[in-house]
Amino acid sequence: MPPVVGPGGPxxxxxxxxxxxxxxxxxxxxRPLTELRPKALCPVGNVPLLDRGLDRVEALGLRGQGSVAVxxxxxxxxxxxxxxxxxxxxxxxxxxLGTAGGLGQLRDWINGRGALVGNADxxxxxxxxxxxxxIADLLAGWDGEQVRMLGRPAEPGGRxxxxxxxxxxxxxxxxxxxxxxxxxPAELWREVWRPAEARGELLVIPYRGSYTDAGTPxxxxxxxxxxxxxxxxxxxxxxxxxxxxxxxxxVGAGAEVRGALTRSVVWPDGYVAExxxxxxAVRVGRDLTVTA
Length: 292
What we know:
This protein has helices at 49-60, 76-83, 98-105, 107-110, 175-178, 188-198, 217-229; strands spanning 17-22, 43-44, 47-48, 68-72, 88-91, 114-119, 122-125, 147-153, 165-173, 202-206, 210-213, 234-236, 241-242, 246-251, 256-257, 260-266, 271-272, 277-279, 281-284, 288-291. By secondary structure, it is of the alpha/beta class. Strand 2 (43-44) and strand 3 (47-48) form a beta hairpin. The longest helix is centred in the last third of the chain and has 13 residues, at 217-229.
């Protein structure tokens, strides 16, 4: 498959570039869902978040273990098994090293290349372009020297992390910054973004779609509802059964829903009994319900 063409022009030059998806975090704010699986493997619109990230960079032309890496720590065995041969997996056995430390541990694998870095738990939905094309502007015309990040405007009257901008899940880092990152706990905002901003070397590229950090039950449900809305309010996976009323819902494969759903998510093989009404909630199995 050829690289996608972004809204801003021709396909980006991928020479000297790799992609890293950060999937090592514990996802504490999303517990108890993340007691079962790492946040990066929680499904949004019946697709694990990590798969959405892998599909996005693959659409850009970055694919395979030589070009794409994933870091893992919390429930790392699940991430390793899920990534398979789609990406090189860097396991951090002593606990998550953070967004910068994870890249530092991957220094030898990155090996002189620039890095397109995405949060695996970021949910992006392009307004006018398919996945991959929606972030192609981040790469267009890049000279290999400038630090870039996707940004969304802050809410009216509010302030973002970078002036009027809020970080939107992906950044682009030159090798000269990556090679200095420690292979110990550290964060990109301290090690790269703030210093680059202070030097006038940080460029924010506006993201044209919607961005959700699916890190809390409320935001996780909101991300799923964005997908449901694209299916007229109801997305039901193959093999699921829904006999009760549903108003804005996502239902996973093998699930059985006899009760009512309102702005809710049912994980694969979940069950909602007749007479139940889930509202602003996530159902896992028969008994676990997590509310917004």
